[in-house]
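[09:14] KT: can someone run the structure on this one? pasting the chain below
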Amino acid sequence: MTALMLVFSDCTSAPSDHAHAWVTYTCSDGQAVQASYPDSNTAIIKLKGETHTLHVALSGSGARYAGEGWQWWTKGMHDGMLAPLASGESIASAPGTACHAE
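[09:31] RB: done, structure tokens below
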């Protein structure tokens, strides 16, 4: 029973900052975004002092992540596009802001 509880606690615990590297992006509007990719299905972004967990979403090109009111779309590890998601959207209708890794 104890081993089973340990397995479940590992599955529900949030990734720690020490578990993965952060990439800092500077966006065309002057804001900074930090992103981390703890696994192939998740991007964690830090924006304006808040941390958001986004999950992989369908894209025709690059890697697109969505969740918690944000869309983060990357091409490789150097270029990204950050856009707010309006309520009920699965793809952002806002044009977004271009970001580039420092």
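[09:33] KT: thanks! The CA atoms of residues 33 and 47 lie 5 Å apart.
[09:34] RB: yep, looked fine to me
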